[in-house]
Design goal:
Elements: H1 8-140, H2 147-166
Subcellular location: Cell membrane
Keywords: ATP synthesis, Cell membrane, CF(0), Coiled coil, Hydrogen ion transport, Ion transport, Membrane, Transmembrane, Transmembrane helix, Transport
InterPro entries: ATP_synth_B-like_membr_sf, ATP_synth_b/b'su_bac/chlpt, ATP_synthase_B_chain
Length: about 170
């Protein structure tokens, strides 16, 4: 006997044991292996589908974020432009108000200066009239008491002096 001429009983027993082991493996082990492989395939394909869903959601959220960011930038630009225009308008208003206040102050000061000049001129005329009357009284040697006549002479003198200055 040898490998080329096997013993028939050993060959039959070997084949029966082989098929028994093969049947046991096919009945018990192969369904478990198939089940495990199917679970892995399902998990892999499910994970892949979930990853694709998450990726598409991320793209959608990113697009929304980009749109919101663009809108926010445009809004900020519009707000900056409006603030700039408002600032320019406010500055112009403040300048015109300041210009008007300056003109009012200059006009008030001019009126006040003219009033002060008139008052000072009147006081000075009275003082000059008093000094001229006292000096004329010293020159004559007796006090002059006719104030109305002295005032008329002084007014005529000052009117002539003003006419000479204006001309």
């Amino acid at each position: 006997m040898g490998p080329l001429k096997p013993n028939f009983i050993e060959l039959i027993v070997g084949l029966v044991v082989f098929f028994a082991v093969f049947a046991t493996l096919a009945m018990v082990l192969l369904p478990r292996i198939d089940k495990t492989l199917a679970e892995r395939e399902e998990a892999t394909s499910g994970t892949l589908e979930r990853a694709e869903a998450v990726e598409s959601e991320a793209r959608r959220v990113r697009a929304e974020y980009q749109a919101e960011l663009s809108a926010a930038r445009q809004e900020a630009s519009r707000i900056r432009q409006a603030a700039h225009e408002e600032g320019v308008a406010l500055l112009a208003a403040v300048r015109s108000e300041g210009q008007k206040a300056r003109e009012d102050m200059v006009a008030a000061a001019t009126v006040q200066l003219e009033a002060d000049r008139v008052i000072a001129e009147a006081e000075l005329r009275e003082h000059v009239l008093g000094l001229a009357t006292a000096l004329a009284g010293r020159i004559i040697g007796e006090p002059l008491t006719d104030i109305d006549r002295a005032r008329a002479v002084a007014d005529a003198f000052f009117a002539g002096a003003e006419a000479d200055t204006a001309g």
